[in-house]
């Protein structure tokens, strides 16, 4: 049920926006969805740098996004809207770009807080209107945040009991069981009268958190909740975080009640801090997935990524009903992107996109059924490699070549075949291959002339082309 007050506010904003559209001022809100390390910050930095360069319309900038139709001369300018009085931190595209262009170049650090940036795109109207009406201005709203926080979205639909049962069941299975054993033993030993003692709460929380860190950093798992246990954000560690999933037998104890209150307070805090500002209202979504990373982390990590993305998308509203036309709710266009596509040679990039299609099968179908326009792309936000040939069992095979971040040396890497669907069991038995981290390429004019990429332009055309 939509909240009536929110609905009225949305309708009001929407009619305001319709008036703005008539006056040539429109707003597009883009939600970037991606689990931790999927490539959100790098994607946003490249998007900003390339749109700004394309808007300059001169030199290399003009050629930076050839597949985006508006860069055929209609895009007159793209610039970051200067800071106003926003309470949210600003996405510092310039600082990220400067670090990428530095010598030696640096990738952005893990994102630790929500940040936003709006781009103003000035566009000449097409056809006859271009001569008689003034330029249009489209504002593109962008957001960056820690990927771990996304897994909080499915938590909003559950109470403490349901979340605890589901989480504890998951902890007992597969790869999770060994690193979770100490926490599970602790939780199961809690008596039905467990006192609400600080030391007990802190011990349970510390054990559970230690498990989450191991699961993320050593096992490559992604369905890990709550997000702030892994990435606490600017608030740092605080009592609101000191809870853990509890077995039913101990949930009505004083300790159980304390855990439940903290769980509730956590969700309230995340709603204000993250959910409302980020996911309340947007009309385009790009879902970034590090498919190769998931593939190379093994079968369970791959399945875990698929499950996490499905659970997140189940909480979002896709498509456009008549109500959505009024309120602007619902996501009208979704682009799925397999990121870091420069890790594989060109011949493998179609397979990469099909593999992603398969991995996000559930969310993709959900969005399509609801009427959203859905596309799938292989993308490298920053292209770090070139095509090369490697010798594979004595025969030449396509590979990529780039500079390794760790030692600054050139290396030719043959990532092997990329399966076009979820791979069969035999695939997982082969030795796992770990993708190296490449050094970002030296950027001309500190990136101000645009950033080399693969497929960012076709992705933007599919996602935003109709609005530009
Ligand atoms: N070769 C290559 N590597 C990339 C590309 N995009 C991202 N990476 C690598 O992936 C890492 C993670 O990218 P980020 O953009 O920081 O990931 P994120 O989604 O913002 O991660 P969190 O902030 O932890 O949620 C980078 O440090 C790079 O090593 C790309 O286009 N090409
Ligand atoms: Mg980031």
From TrEMBL:
UniProt-listed InterPro entries: YcjX-like
Pfam families: DUF463
Protein name, as recorded: YcjX family protein
Organism: Roseomonas populi
């Amino acid at each position: 049920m939509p909240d009536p007050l929110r609905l009225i506010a949305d309708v009001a904003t929407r009619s305001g926006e319709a008036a703005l559209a008539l006056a040539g001022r429109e707003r597009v809100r883009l939600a970037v969805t991606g689990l931790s390390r999927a490539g959100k910050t790098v994607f946003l930095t490249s998007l900003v740098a390339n749109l700004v360069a394309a808007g300059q319309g001169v030199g290399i900038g003009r050629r930076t996004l050839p597949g985006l139709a508006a860069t055929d001369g209609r895009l007159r300018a793209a610039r970051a809207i200067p800071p106003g009085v926003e309470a949210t931190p600003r996405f510092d595209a310039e600082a990220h770009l400067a670090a990428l262009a530095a010598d030696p170049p640096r990738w952005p650090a893990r994102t630790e807080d929500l940040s936003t940036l709006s781009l103003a795109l000035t566009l000449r109207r097409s056809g006859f209107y271009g001569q008689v009406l003034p330029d249009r201005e489209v504002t593109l709203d962008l957001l960056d945040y820690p990927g771990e926080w996304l897994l909080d979205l499915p938590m909003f639909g559950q109470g403490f009991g349901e979340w605890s049962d589901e989480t504890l069941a998951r902890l007992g299975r597969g790869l999770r069981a060994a690193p979770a054993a100490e926490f599970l033993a602790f939780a199961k030993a809690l008596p039905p009268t467990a006192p609400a003692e600080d030391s007990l709460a802190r011990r349970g929380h510390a054990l559970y958190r230690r498990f989450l860190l191991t699961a993320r950093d050593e096992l490559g798992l992604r369905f890990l909740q709550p997000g702030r246990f892994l990435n606490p954000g600017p608030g740092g560690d605080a009592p609101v975080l000191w809870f853990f999933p509890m077995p039913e037998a101990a949930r009505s104890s004083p300790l159980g009640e304390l855990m439940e209150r903290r769980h509730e307070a956590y969700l309230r805090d995340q709603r204000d801090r993250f959910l409302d500002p980020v996911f309340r209202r947007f009309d385009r979504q790009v879902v970034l997935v590090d498919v190769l990373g998931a593939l190379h982390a093994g079968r369970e990590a791959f399945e875990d990524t698929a499950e996490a993305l499905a659970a997140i998308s189940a909480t979002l509203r896709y498509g456009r009903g008549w109500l959505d036309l009024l309120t602007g709710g619902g996501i009208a266009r979704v682009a799925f992107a397999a990121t870091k596509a420069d890790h594989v040679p060109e011949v493998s990039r179609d397979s990469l996109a099909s593999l992603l299609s398969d991995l996000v099968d559930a969310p993709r179908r959900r969005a399509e059924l609801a009427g959203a326009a859905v596309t799938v792309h292989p993308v490298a936000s920053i292209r770090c490699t070139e095509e090369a040939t490697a010798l594979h069992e004595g025969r030449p095979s396509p590979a990529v070549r780039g500079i390794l971040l760790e030692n600054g040396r050139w290396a030719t890497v043959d990532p092997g075949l990329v399966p076009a669907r979820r791979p069969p069991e035999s695939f997982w038995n082969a030795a796992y291959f770990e993708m190296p981290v490449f050094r970002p390429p030296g950027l001309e004019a500190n990136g101000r002339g645009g950033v080399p990429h693969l497929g960012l332009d076709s992705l933007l055309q599919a996602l935003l082309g109709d609005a530009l």
